[in-house]
Amino acid sequence: MPAFKKLLIANRGEIACRIILSCHALGIRTVAVYSEADREALHVEMADESVEVGPAAARESYLKAEAILDAARCTGAGAIHPGYGFLSENADFARSVIAAGLVWVGPAPISIEDMGDKERARDIAKAAGVPILPGSPRFTLGDMAGLAEAAEEVGFPLLVKAAAGGGGIGMRLVDDPAQLRNVVEATQSMAGKSFGDSSVYLERYVTNARHIEVQVFGFGDGQGVHLYDRDCSVQRRFQKIIEEAPAPNVSDAVRAELFRAAVSLVHHQRYSGAGTVEFIYDTDREQAYFLEMNTRIQVEHPCTELVTGVDLVAWQIQQAAGTLKPVPQERIVVRGHAVECRLYAERPEKNFLPSPGLIAGLHWPNQDDALRVDTGVRAGDRITPFYDPMVAKLIAHGADRAQAIARLRQALDELVIEGLSTNVNFLRGVLDDSRMGTGAVTTGFVAEFLADRKAVPISRVGS
User: Fold this and answer.
1) Any idea where the ATP-grasp domain is (predicted)?
2) What confidence tier does 463 reach under pLDDT thresholds 50, 70, 90?
């Protein structure tokens, strides 16, 4: 039995619903927290108990650490799972949870802190024998000494990256040296406001790149395993849209090096729990470089779950409770292929502008072993402007990549959603694209795809 009988989920939407399912399968009662805007939300309905934590704005509710801790105390929850986003990678919040005598479902705060600082993470990765992209020391607000020399050493094009950023936030591409200083200053200002840390650093930009990541799990004692890889190259503005596992068109030698590097980083940190080591793969050089490590469950974790049969959220909870025994690497086997797409209320032809509104009608395709839908909404719910406009994730599994893509494509045809402008036509178009079919997709694919289809509607109101 776990060390706690009740767990509070410090999140909302589909990830909160997802965590509730694993908790109930483990016999653990759940507590949902919600803002005023989410009073009637699905995750509130699914949980055994619920507590309102503030107004609609996230900073006044889901990001209000003390209100969440109070909710745990008043309901008798023994553990807190942060999901992803919000407070999931906030080391101070993790420490507060532990200091309150509660179980933190996540890695040690020092791991969150180390990997959250992108420059420190690069140094740790390098010490662990993980290849890193050429980069610079950090530059704090008002400090430009040596900037031009550092940029010349890194080479153009380059990325200006917020040291405390993540998930694609706080990154700016610079290919003209004359624009460097302005971009650095703008990124420093944004980083200070968004993360409370204005420092940035420079990093080489790989022109023909793929985004490949390795799912890892550490047992906190220096042992750890990988659960294979995922490709997340279909993205816009550094935000992922379609993910798949395993990554296509990767040689055995490169894949083995990815796994070696990722597990080495886990061992080096004595990491505990689920994490994702992300790499930029230079297709010209056939070389992978460390990008960052996410110290939480990922949005795209269902791809890994479908090909390995592992419930990663259950593993997280059991590891935090001290009931998970280390699993040998050879017991983790990939079967088939999985592809996930993120359904958003947005208008791709308007630069992916969010399109909140009422879900007037909703019919999901039939779910079985080959198709999974993770969502936090029902017909009659409203996608609000307060949070990320993701409606759902559709994940298809097949014996091979072609079958998984075909099943996902069919699911999108069967999907009916009324009242919202969504990216469903965009997703259909991407899955139909010959480059997607052959796996010849880089991080520049979406821009190329949009340029090719300027005259074609790629958002849709209704089904």
Assistant:
1) 122-321
2) very low
**Which residues are known to be catalytic?**
296
Q: Whole-number mean pLDDT of the chain? A: 94
DSSP characters over 85-108: STTTT-HHHHHHHHHTTPEESSS-
Give the pLDDT of residue 1. 43
Give the list of residues 6+ apart from residue 147 with CB closer than 8 angstroms, or none. Answer: 139, 180, 181, 184
* Cα torsion through 119, 120, 122, 124, rounded to 10: 170
**Residues 73-84: tens digit of each pLDDT:** 999 999 999 999
What is the pTM (predicted TM-score) of this model?
A: 0.89
Q: 134-204, what's its fold? A: Dna Ligase; domain 1 (3.30.1490)
pLDDT of residue 349: 85
Residue range 418-437, pLDDT digits in tens: 999 999 999 999 999 999 99
Second CATH level (architecture) for the domain 209-461: 2-Layer Sandwich (3.30)
Count of CB atoms within 10 A of residue 451's CB? Answer: 8
According to CATH, the topology of domain 6-105 is Rossmann fold (3.40.50)
Region label for 71, one of left (φ > 0), alpha (ψ between -120 and 50) or beta (otherwise): alpha
For the chain, what are the domain ranges? 6-105, 134-204, 209-461
C-alpha to C-alpha distance for 305 and 143, rounded to whole angstroms: 45
Asked if residues 376 and 41 have their Cβ atoms less than 8 Å apart, the reply is yes
- Residues forming beta bridges with residue 49, ordered by sequence position: 31
347: which residues sit within 8 A by CB, 6+ positions away?
A: 353, 355, 421, 423, 459
Residue type, 316: Q
Q: Report residue 39 as tokens.
A: 């009073």
